[in-house]
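ok posting inputs for the PXL job
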Amino acid sequence: MKRILTVQDISCIGKCSLTVALPVLSAMGLETAVLPTMLLSAHTAFPGVFKRDLTEIILPVTKHWREQGIQFDSVSCGYLGSLGQVDLLAGLCREWKKEKAVIFVDPVMGDGGKLYSGFGMEYVGAMKKLCMEADVILPNLTEAAFLLDMDYSALPTKWEDWESLLVQLSKLNNGTVVLKGVGLREGRTIVLAYCAKTEKIVCCERELLPIKPSGTGDIFAAVCQGAITKGICLEEAIGLAMDFVLECICKTMEDKEGRWYGVNYEEAFPFLIEKMKR
Ligand code: PXL
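and the output
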């Protein structure tokens, strides 16, 4: 079994980051190690969240793994707690990469044109440096705009302009970029990917559903990491991640007793497990 690591916060309530990535990756048949970056009583859409920054655990935990000779086939970073932590992870990713791990960075810092609460421009600068260490970066449109220092309202509307935006983004890591939520066509959602090494563009298009529960970006990133680590090609990995996210959103819409704050991924698992058999 491949062994992978996922580095992100644990939000005790709210179904995002580690509480969705771990079950998804385990269900995909990967031995999944976790490195929690911050503990939050709930995700940041709740008011008055209690937070405990876990930066101080990162070096002792990773030192112990090194002493035990533990290595990873891939490592992913998602929501990180603080500036210092982003720098710390950049150094660790460099080490893991030398040990042949494929590095995925979802530069989680905002959505809907705005940064999440607690993040400012310094955080964006640190995130650019972390992206440099990644083989694959997976920004949403807001994160892409911040990473390129451009205005969210100036994002492209034409296909040719998206192509050049992808190329610009791929210069951050000189690798692969997976850009989520591109709205090129009415009623559709598009993921565009570009690989700097092959100069190939991948475009995956699906139906745009009317709700966007939190946690779906984290699920998307987890499925991409899992699938690519298992040797599935980029295009199929993105297609699988989009299909599973759609299934999760459908289950969320069907669930009349569902909670406002999270995605119903639990009832979508049979779909993912069935897909992984093929
Ligand atoms: O889903 C991204 C995410 C992860 N972790 C925390 C969040 C969010 C988005 O709001 O608040 C704590």
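notes: The longest strand covers residues 31-40. The pocket of PXL is lined by residues 9, 11, 16-17, 40, 43-45, 79, 108, 116, 214-215, 217-218 (CB under 6 Å).
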